[in-house]
Write a structure and sequence with these properties.
alpha+beta; binds FE2/S2 (inorganic) cluster
Length: 154
């Protein structure tokens, strides 16, 4: 049986018809065409599917879309404007904090949640907060440096 839900996605009001089993990740990728968040492990371990729900990072592979009714969702696509990357994206570019990019959307959104809570985190706080995000290319050192050196309003 299908259900219609309403939510905010990157500041825009959206609605969608979903199945009870539809995940948040399937909703944003398949119905809204926002494919920055990736399916990795599908068991809430790798962080490739991370999205922000009301400002907090969640594993969208393991969250049901029915549970985000009325919530504000942020995806990586909502961070940049037409011709300007978000300061966290700029820092990832500057510090070479990505190779294949599969994990990058998840890292950037998790970093945004951290910097919203704590604008000047220590290396240890960054590592702790990002502990649920895996990078199989091994860019951890560069990612920490990038998050530490975000310039401007993150
Ligand atoms: S795909 Fe969701 S945590 Fe790995
Ligand atoms: S850049 Fe390839 S998995 Fe992180």
């Amino acid at each position: 049986m299908k259900k219609t839900i309403s939510l905010t996605v990157n500041g825009c009001e959206r609605s969608a018809e979903i199945e009870a089993r539809t995940t948040l990740l399937d909703l944003v990728r398949e119905q809204f065409g926002l494919t920055g968040a990736k399916l990795g492990c599908d068991i809430q371990v790798c962080g490739a599917c991370t999205l922000l729900v009301d400002g907090k990072p969640v594993s969208a592979c393991s969250m049901l879309a029915v549970d985000v009714e009325g919530c504000a969702i942020e995806t990586v696509e909502g961070l940049s404007s037409k011709d300007k990357l978000h300061p966290i994206q700029e820092a990832f570019m500057e510090f070479g904090a990505l190779q294949c990019g599969y994990c990058t959307s998840g890292f950037i959104l998790t970093a945004k949640a951290l910097l919203d809570e704590c604008p000047q985190p220590s290396d240890e706080q960054i590592r702790d907060y990002l502990a649920g995000n895996f990078c199989r290319c091994g860019c951890y050192q560069e990612i920490v440096q990038a998050v530490k050196n975000v310039r401007g309003e993150a």
